[in-house]
Design brief:
The complex is a heterodimer of chains A (239) and B (262). Helix content of chain A is 34%, strand content 26%. Chain A has 239 residues and is α/β, with parallel strands linked by helices. Chain B has 262 residues and is mainly alpha-helical. Chain B has one domain. In chain B, 76% of the residues lie in helices and 0% in strands. Chain B is built from eleven helices and no strands. Chain B is globular, with a radius of gyration of 19 Å. The chains are: A alpha/beta (239), B mainly alpha (262). Chain A binds chain B through residues 14, 48, 51-55, 57, 72-74, 76-77, 79, 81, 83-87, 89, 91-92, 96, 99-101, 103-109, and chain B through 1, 3-4, 6-7, 9-11, 13-14, 17-18, 21, 91-94, 96-104, 254-255, 258-260, 262.
Chain lengths: 239, 262
């Protein structure tokens, strides 16, 4: 057991359309794993299954040693999620927002205030704690979302295209921050369709038409080619 | 503090803060019943004669008659508006976030319902206060005794909204909810006219009104505003609440509901 994040034999269909076919992977603890796939590859469906917004009768998901199907409460308690969609209330301050999210995990009191300060500091956001979310720029809002996902001290962190709509510099900063989190012991699954966010040392999964078509170290998968070329080749986008 | 209570408190507090930031919504929600009370009822007063039926012990004016119905109207519109905001939340991600909390889903959804009911009840009391300023008053104890009825009615209509929201794919469909749920429920009830009056024109319509769950909420509120208890209305409302709540939780079951619609 890796105690990171693993899936075996996952399948899912929307009516007649098969969105995921026999998806299996195993991400060891404290690894940064990129999930690369073109639009429509099934990334969102996979995320919905991993966050239990959807449940499949096929396959099994294990999160920090807990079976998501059999023991969702314990598994979800170990999971932090950054959704593609914003979750922050624009009219509340950063701290008020984070307090609400901590409470959704049953946490309250003085310990939470300390934890909020810590999580914001980890993302260089400490001095913005009392600003209204509406006044923050896109990059800072994303960082707040990431700080939010860390409040309950999760062991596994899922991010669904967290850099969508951000400029290149901000994208680089956020990618850097999350790599640092993996180095500190978090298991990270980062969904993207942008190859420049992935490092050679990262674990890489390529999802295409609902199936995993590559699984391993990014450097090994791309070989001599650039990752972008390899990706386009595998997914047939340059054909 | 018990973690489940922490969750409930946070969800109610968030709804409350949202409500404070959207004062226009509060005013709009109050204007609707007040227009009915002060304009519609004034016009109808002359046209409609009301006889003495329980819980009333004397002749009453039409304005007095429709106050309980308008209280229920606030609960109905708020329950539906809350369902609208859930569809919006779902598109925005905050609903996803709520549902990835490790607490049981039924508790999260019930907390959300209690939060929106709290806001509805605040609006009902504000409405009753304004009605009082215009001289339309209830029994003094009625204002206290109506509270449990408002909670039950609010949760029931909120659960109906929640159930609908689990089947609505997009915001645009809300107009359909207005036409096919809110208006029929409101007009085919005892909110605006007593059932015996309805029977004079059509017994079929009267029968439809009599089984409409909204009628039971209206009557439950009407009786409790006069420190009286309508056991049948209370029982029906309770039954409907349990049924709708169960159906809403089922609608949000990850194995069949919500996210499966794409």
């Amino acid at each position: 057991m890796s105690a990171g994040l693993s899936a075996s034999g996952l399948g899912f269909r929307y009516g007649a359309k098969e969105a995921l076919k026999d998806v299996s992977f195993d991400i060891p603890k404290a690894r940064f794993c990129a999930l690369l796939g073109p639009n429509g590859a099934g990334k969102s469906t996979l995320f919905s299954l991993l966050t239990r917004l959807l449940v499949s009768r096929q396959g099994r998901i294990e999160m920090a040693g807990h079976d998501l199907g059999a023991d969702p409460g314990k598994a979800l308690a170990k999971l932090g999620v950054v959704f593609q969609q914003p979750t922050l209330d624009l009219d509340l301050s950063v701290r008020q927002n984070l307090r609400y999210f901590a409470a959704l995990h049953g946490l309250s009191g003085a310990a939470v205030e300390i934890r909020i300060t810590e999580c914001l500091a980890r993302l260089d956001m400490a001095e913005r704690a009392d600003e209204r979310v509406r006044s923050l720029n896109g990059g800072h809002r994303r960082r707040t979302e990431i700080a939010r996902s860390l409040l309950h001290d999760p062991e596994v962190l899922l991010l669904d295209e967290p850099t969508v709509g951000l400029d290149a510099a901000t994208r680089a900063t956020i990618t850097e921050h999350v790599h640092a989190l993996a180095n500190q012991g978090l298991t990270v699954l980062w969904a993207t369709h942008l190859t420049d966010e992935i490092r050679d040392t990262d674990h890489l999964l390529i999802l295409h038409r609902g199936q995993i078509v590559a699984d391993g170290a990014a450097a090994d998968i791309r070989g001599e080619r650039s990752l972008e070329d390899h990706f386009l080749n595998v997914t047939g986008a340059n054909a | 503090m018990n973690p489940a209570i922490v969750v409930l408190r946070a969800i109610v507090a968030r709804e409350f803060l949202r409500f404070i930031h959207q004062r226009e919504r509060f005013i709009a929600a109050l204007v609707r019943p007040l227009v009915w009370l002060l304009v519609f009822a004034a016009g109808f007063r002359a046209a409609l004669g009301l006889s003495i039926t329980p819980p009333y012990q004397t002749y009453i004016t039409y304005e007095v008659y429709i106050v309980p119905g308008l209280c229920a109207m606030i609960l109905l519109f708020n329950g539906m508006q809350s369902s609208l905001s859930l569809v919006y939340d779902r598109e925005m991600g905050s609903m996803r976030l709520l549902l990835t909390s490790p607490f049981p889903r039924w508790w999260l959804l019930l907390s959300r319902l209690l939060a929106s009911t709290t806001i509805s009840i605040l609006q009902v009391y504000t409405f009753l206060l304004i009605a009082g300023l215009f001289g339309i008053t209830m029994e003094p104890w009625g204002y206290v005794l109506v509270f449990p009825s408002l909670v039950l009615g609010g949760v029931m209509l909120g659960a109906l909204g929640l159930l609908l929201s689990s089947f609505i794919k997009q915001l645009e469909n809300f107009a359909g909810v207005m036409n096919f749920v809110i208006f029929p429920m409101f007009f085919l009830s005892s909110a605006l006219y007593p059932l015996w009056k309805m029977a004079e024109s059509s017994t079929l319509l009267r029968d439809i009104c009599a089984v409409n769950p909204f009628t039971h909420v209206v009557e439950m509120i009407r009786f409790s505003l006069y420190s009286d208890m309508n056991l049948a209305a209370f029982g029906w409302s309770f039954g409907w609440t349990v049924l709708l709540l169960g159906a809403a939780v089922w609608g949000y079951d990850p194995a069949r509901g919500m996210a499966r619609h794409r």
